[in-house]
Amino acid sequence: MSNEATTVQAAQATEETTGTESPPRGLGVSLPAADTRAKTEGTFPYAADLWAEGLLWAAVLRSPHPHARIASIDTTHAREMPGVHAVVTHEDVPGTPVYERGRSDRPLFASDVVRHHGEAIAAVAADHPDTARMAAAAVIVEYEVLDPVIDPEQAFEAEPLHPDGNLIRHIPLRHGDPDAAGDLVVEGLYRIGRQDPAPIGAEAGLAVPRPDGGVELYLASTDPHGDRDAAAAAFGLEPDRVKVVVTGVPGATADREDQSFQLPLGLLALKTGCPVKLTATREESFLGHAHRHPTLLRYRHHADAEGRLVKVEAQILLDAGAYADTSSDALAAAVAFACGPYVVPNAFIEGWAVRTNNPPSGHMRGEGALQVCAAYEAQMDKLAKKLGLDPAEVRMRNVMATGDVLPTGQTVTCPAPVAELLEAVRDHPLPPLPKDTPEDEWLLPGGPEGAGEPGAVRRGVGYGLGMVHMLGGEGADEVSTATVKVQDGVATVLCAAVETGQGFTTLARQIVQEILGVDEVRVAPVDTDQPAAGAGSRSRHTWVSGGAVERAAKMVRTQLLQPLAHKFGMSAELLQITDGRITSYDGVLSTPVTEALQGKELWATAQCRPHPTEPLDASGQGDAYVGMSFCAIRAVVDVDIEIGSVRVVELAVAQDVGRVLNPAQLAARIEAGVTQGVGAALTENLRTPRGLVRHPDLTGYALPTALDAPDIEIVKLVEERDVVAPFGAKAVSAVPVVTSPAAIAAAVRAATGRPVNRLPIRPQAAVVTGGRDRPVRSTD
After folding, report:
1. Where is this region: Disordered (predicted)?
2. Residue 380's closest CA among 469, 293, 294, 312?
């Protein structure tokens, strides 16, 4: 490591997590996170806090146009400004000029054409952040402005926006009898808006050149090895000459660090020979990273006279924005789960992901699944209304269970207790009406001192059933490696699984405590000198990285027990570790683990690789996913039918979790996911008129606040273990994000009688003409 980064390494060392809590310990207890104190005291080292000797500051020039041809780029004035050390454009990229995690089609810097508002054109390194920003603004770019393609439906006929064309992927799913028809048919057209990850801390990072001509990148990365490989390709270096060190991640609900921020850093560090740091403004953050796919959905449901589904037909169009990113994966999930957790004997789904000149779309929690959930649940409400059935009842007649078959032809082999989840939220007591608790009368839609009138408020109850896949899919090699070392009674876990707030470091400590019976467990900081563990998305680290830690810990356990077993003439399988003691089945042996470990140094490395999956074939068929998780939510809302404002009163949640590994952590993940879904349902919509990002800040982009967060009642957690998953646990954070917007929309429909076919729900969609003549505060 270079001398310049010594300060960085010292700061990073404080991220090492330790656990010294006394029993209870191990799996199934609410072990607190080791970094809680540092975060609450403000001493936790995030990427924006890093510093190194001789530091320069970076700024990126971004396109003001969504679509334009670049006639020329003049960096002369920027280079001549005092304090400027380097200016780089596409001409300075020594290696592969394009990058992407999903598909390599996105340039590091635009060269001939800009394809979206905010695309990177050039980057500057200077001795002060203000100088860097002024120098970036001094780069003169002559544009020939072109008409942007902003409507994804127009992308099919428009001129190609990219050498690879406008169509990224088309999936025509065919399942069952195309001539099947039901006694009843309901149709709908639905639109889902562009949700932004809106990370708590904007993107930041530090690049430090190495004496060997390589570079070290200190980033809040969620996929350090993927980022390293992309950086090495762009810099024209071998991967072993690029090192990514993961700094504190201030929360992640998507790919945390977009490479349009981090790759210019490394390029500038290599060019100047100095450490270079970038801390993005909130506007730059909005312009630079990917968002949830805006989606257009057309549905037609066929059902028999009893309300049982006969056939589902759908068209799903994802707006990928300018580049492919992970759109292929998102489309596969949307098509595979287009019918939801329901038994559908015949399904015919057409799915497309297309390029436009809108901002790039990419990975966010429940990508693809959230969009279709909002649509198919709206269809179930329409079906219930047409049949005169309770919305919960029509769902109950169609829910899937273990052994049922998805429209992709994949059999659901994991636990699928969907009926049990729906029953739990349906039977949970409803919250009282405000007239029964007059002290809460001020809690009107619109908040305290809001414009609403109590007489115009109506209450609605709605249901949502959602499902997501766990891990990647369609043949992705989901593998992780972990090492567990024990010395002097202290265990250390080395695994490149990034702690993004999902609780992996806490889980790793609990696993080792459970298996080895030690109290003190440390989880080492993450960098790319460790074997790869993959990206921190789709709750995969709980499964693959947790599984790798479990296997390595069990190998160490065997190393510990075998000598003792041999000494007493028995098999190691007859020994167990409980409450910090090693005991034999007959009680002859009973010794503290700390005593048995004294003077020993034990270690083992293991991998976890789930069973393989396969890509969807030409008709959308295939065993594409390792497993699935399910959720049911009942939403209760109050709607002011005159001004269209909505208050979510309560969300009752029942979820299929496999096994509870950390009760407090699990509840926090569910509550956070539900709240993110509230944002998607009511407030979060990054507006892009004519392809231009409008109000790229946290004033114009409305995140839910504490006043918007409803009461969240976790009414049931179904612990039916998934036998193919380590510990039997399932992903918990994505499926409530997917389900809560659909449930909220259903409740608004119940309160207003309006169709509510767009997310987020606009006020005009909840206004009822002549509503004062209708019963107030109905709970229909």
Report:
1. 1-31
2. 312
pLDDT band at 255 (very low <50, low <70, confident <90, very high): low
Q: pLDDT per residue over 648-659, tens digit each?
A: 999 999 999 999
Residue 594 CB contacts under 8 Å (≥ 6 apart), including other chains: 489, 518, 580
State the DSSP H helix or E strand holding residue 336, giving kind and residue range, or none if neither.
helix 327-336
DSSP conformation letters of 627-682: EEEEEEEEEEEEEETTT--EEEEEEEEEEE-SS-S-HHHHHHHHHHHHHHHHHHHH
Q: What is the pLDDT of residue 84?
A: 97
Q: What is the pLDDT of residue 446?
A: 66
**Does residue 19 carry a pLDDT above 50?**
no
Beta pairing, strands 242-246 & 215-219 = parallel
Q: What is the 3-state secondary structure (H, E, C) of 107-167?
A: ECCCCCEECCCCCEEEEEEECCHHHHHHHHHHCEEEEEECCCCCCHHHHHCCCCCCCCCCE
- 541 DSSP assignment: I
Q: First CA to last CA across the chain, in angstroms?
A: 66
Mean pLDDT score of the chain, rounded to an integer? 89
| pLDDT tens, residue by residue, 729-750 | 888 889 999 999 999 999 999 9
Q: Are 647 and 435 in contact (CB under 8 A)?
A: no
Per-residue burial over 639-669, b if 16 or more Cβ lie within 10 Å, else e, is bbbbbbbbbbbbbbbbbbbbbbbbeebbbbb
Alpha helices (H) in 492-627, listed in sequence order: 504-516, 540, 546-567, 593-597
Q: Strand 711-718 relative to strand 646-656: parallel, antiparallel, unpaired?
A: parallel
Q: Can you state the percent helix, strand and coil of the chain, rounding each to 5?
A: 30, 25, 45
> 552 is written with which tokens?
């390595």
CB atoms within 10 A of CB 118: 24
- pLDDT tens digits, one per residue of 20-61: 445 567 787 888 887 788 888 888 888 888 899 999 999 999
To the nearest 10°, report the CA torsion of 607, 613, 615, 618: 170
Which residues share a beta bridge with 225?
Answer: none
The residue count for the chain = 780
